[in-house]
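WARN  no MSA supplied for this record, continuing single-sequence
INFO  ligand: BIS(adenosine)-5'-pentaphosphate
INFO  echoing inputs
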Amino acid sequence: MKIIMLGAPGAGKGTQAKMIAEKYGLPHISTGDIFRANIKNGTELGKEAKEYMDKGLLVPDELTVRLLLDRVAQDDCKNGYVLDGFPRTIPQAEVLDQELSKMGEKVDYAINVDVPDENIVNRMSGRRACLNCGATYHIVSIPPKKEGICDVCGSELVLRDDDRPETVQNRLKVYHEQTQPLIDFYEKKGVLRSVDGTLPMEEVFAAITRILG
Ligand code: AP5
Ligand code: MG
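INFO  complex generated
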């Protein structure tokens, strides 16, 4: 099963993608997490990506597409995957489609986690992320067991550099201009399913599992 998560920054794509990945035994592939791991490790790719990410801009398609195609060519992706944060532009979606159709395959579901802009800034300022394993928390709605420490791997939790309110506004603008058109793109292909992302995360997940079966 090949699943794409769509939604504004902070809509809960990562939170839901992890739960889907676990329930259905699929790898969770987040381009944002891959970029952040590269930044943390000081790689060339990380240095290049950081320039864009800190401004709330998208990393250029060329770089992102290469990274993603390498990742989905790996063995663990044979039975499908959950893509979180990719595609984010129409050209990215077209490349993915072309690559899949070469193998006689296609995207099965594009799940749109729908959250209005008003809710987003609040979510972002409360988010705490683990840069080691990618787990995400919220200081009010989904707190870690021990303040500031990741439940999964014990690393320190941080506020992401791009979660400052000014940057979040920019990410929202970029989302509406470049990523939202994908909703139409996948609707036309008949694979779009929308869920109400303002509900508590377990309810959002229940709605998704009703769709995926
Ligand atoms: P990326 O890491 O993908 O960031 P994003 O899309 O902005 O999304 P977020 O990770 O911020 O939010 P999310 O939807 O995953 O929400 P989460 O589950 O954490 O990308 C970062 C940057 O990398 C981009 O800006 C770009 O520069 C670059 N990039 C990445 N992919 C790219 C691509 N394909 N092309 C070009 N550039 C790319 O939840 C948010 C918060 O809400 C958390 O605190 C969570 O605990 C909480 N929460 C979740 N669900 C609920 C709920 N139901 N109720 C209450 N709180 C909830
Ligand atoms: Mg995320």
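The beta strands are 2-6, 28-30, 81-84, 109-114, 127-130, 136-138, 157-158, 192-196.
INFO  checksum written, moving to next record
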